[in-house]
Amino acid sequence: MEKNTKRSKEKKSKKKIWLWIIGSLLTIFLIFIGTAYYTIQKTMNKINTPLVEATGDENEVQKIVTKKDPFSVLMLGVDERKNDSGRSDTMIVITVNPEKHTMKMLSIPRDTRTEIIGHNSVDKINHAYAFGGVPMAVNTVEHFLDIPIDYYVFVNMEGFLQIIDTIGGVTIDNDMDLTYNTYHYPKGEITLDGDNALIFSRIRYEDPRGDFGRQIRQRQIIEAVLKKASTPSILLKATDMLDVVGENVRMNFTMKDLIQLQSIYKQMDGNIEQLSFKEGDGKRIDNIWYFIPEETELEKIKSDLKAHLQ
């Protein structure tokens, strides 16, 4: 009888211990979730600037990311310098068709000569941001490609360096041996930290393909960052990542949009088609060098993007 009573007490004691452990873990988990949610919301409040607000168009309606409707994104990589508004040295348009599980990516050469909407001038397309920030850059790209821009992502390029370092670097397959000053990038699979990735994405004159080679490398780095950011391991670095993003990124994606976006990207299976300007030519006008797109090729690119957004 005493043995049964003793065993019963031991069982109750062990049960209490396990309940205490489970309760403690649950409490820690809930605190973590609460803190993470607070941090995420704080970051989103900081980086989120609706395109309606950015363009000043009161009649514009904010689009919502769904698993059905196609949408477009303008990515602006801006070099912000002291006493300078900065220029969008990287301008990439991405169109996404969730139903087809496809993405198209177009890098616009920064020296492209076009009408700057809202500035009453014809200039290099990357000057649109310098003249009027995100609103003018968005309006100018919409006019240039004759498609609506639903979303934008602004990234301070120095911050881009920190983002790559925070996720532990990126690995890409480099298609050409390249050297820039003390930086050397051998052909084949290479792993880049933020500093090396930034230089790698900017090289132009050392690549015989010029700006087109630079566009290929930018696409590779963006794909590598997206791939790394969609892995579960990134959650362990979430707090550091949010701090860096909060300081260097502005966008009009909401939290719900980003959750949908991650789900959509996972279904893409890396199916990203690269569009590029291959037939255009450089020309000096008033002693300023411009890239002049070939009209037929430009119309073909416009048509491809429009069809993808149908």
Could you describe the 3D structure shown?
By secondary structure, the chain is of the alpha+beta class. The chain has a single domain (51-308), classed as LCP protein (Aminopeptidase). It is 47% helix and 24% strand. The chain has helices at 2-47, 51-55, 127-145, 157-166, 194-202, 211-229, 238-248, 255-268, 295-308, and strands at 71-79, 87-97, 102-107, 113-116, 121-124, 151-156, 170-174, 178-180, 183-185, 188-192, 249-251, 272-275, 281-285, 288-292. The strands form 5 sheets. A 6-stranded mixed sheet has the order 11-6-1-2-3-12, sandwiched between helices. Helix 4 (157-166) crosses helix 5 (194-202) and helix 4 packs antiparallel against helix 7. Belongs to the LytR/CpsA/Psr (LCP) family. It comes from Lysinibacillus xylanilyticus. Keywords: Membrane, Signal-anchor, Transmembrane, Transmembrane helix. Residues 87-230 form the Cell envelope-related transcriptional attenuator domain.
Outline the secondary-structure elements.
Blueprint: H1 2-47, H2 51-55, E1 71-79, E2 87-97, E3 102-107, E4 113-116, E5 121-124, H3 127-145, E6 151-156, H4 157-166, E7 170-174, E8 178-180, E9 183-185, E10 188-192, H5 194-202, H6 211-229, H7 238-248, E11 249-251, H8 255-268, E12 272-275, E13 281-285, E14 288-292, H9 295-308
Parallel strand pairs: 1-6, 3-12
Antiparallel strand pairs: 1-2, 2-3, 4-5, 6-11, 7-10, 8-9, 13-14
> How many beta strands in the DSSP annotation?
14
Q: Compute the gyration radius: what is it?
A: 24 Å
User: What is the H/E order?
Assistant: HHEEEEEHEHEEEEHHHEHEEEH
Strand fraction equals 15-25%
Q: How many alpha or pi helices?
A: 9
Q: Strand order, biggest sheet?
A: 11-6-1-2-3-12
CATH class: Alpha Beta
Q: Which stretches are poorly predicted, pLDDT < 50 over at least 5 residues?
A: none
Keywords: Membrane, Signal-anchor, Transmembrane, Transmembrane helix
GO biological process, one term: cell wall organization
Domain Cell envelope-related transcriptional attenuator: 87-230
Protein name: Transcriptional regulator
